[in-house]
Amino acid sequence: MPEPKFEKGVWVCPICGFKAMSKKVVITHMEREHPEAIEEKPKEENKPAEKEEKKEDTKKKKGSVSKRKFKLGKTEIRLWDYEHLDMKDQKGWLMFQNRNYTATLHKKQVRVKLLTGEEFEGLIKTRDPFFVSLITKDGRKLIIHKGAIAYIEVLPGDEES
């Protein structure tokens, strides 16, 4: 098959002079309008083997984001761009702890000072991404928004993990 020619910023069909901005458009034109000029290419039988090689690769491209998926024991781990990490298992809680400081204080005795100036002491539970629950020594359960906390201090008797 004759190749399209690039002349003065446009692609030109060498048979009839058809002009287009894209080489692919000219090739498609040649296949439709001039089928007699197209030489038959022998079909390769090795193409399925190439597809098998592509399936073995664990990386998948979706747009500009690279994506990998693998298993670690019973835990399924998905990686996007090597930064975002998603785990479908109880180990997801461990990753939540690493990304969230208040989660590392889960079930510890702490002193919490709010932006309003109030101070509370008690057992903190931090499973929610936006709120913490604090159970005081007199049995009250307080739900506190994390944005309202000025600081959290771990009490000396409960610093070991």
UniProtKB/TrEMBL annotation:
Keywords: Plasmid. Signal peptide: none annotated. The keyword S-adenosyl-L-methionine does not apply. Residues 32-66 are annotated as: Disordered. Gene3D superfamilies: 2.30.30.100. Residues 106-152 form the Hfq-related domain. InterPro entries: Hfq_1, LSM_dom_sf. Residues 32-59 have a biased composition (Basic and acidic residues). This is Hfq-related domain-containing protein. The lineage of its organism: Archaea, Methanobacteriati, Methanobacteriota, Methanomada group, Methanococci.
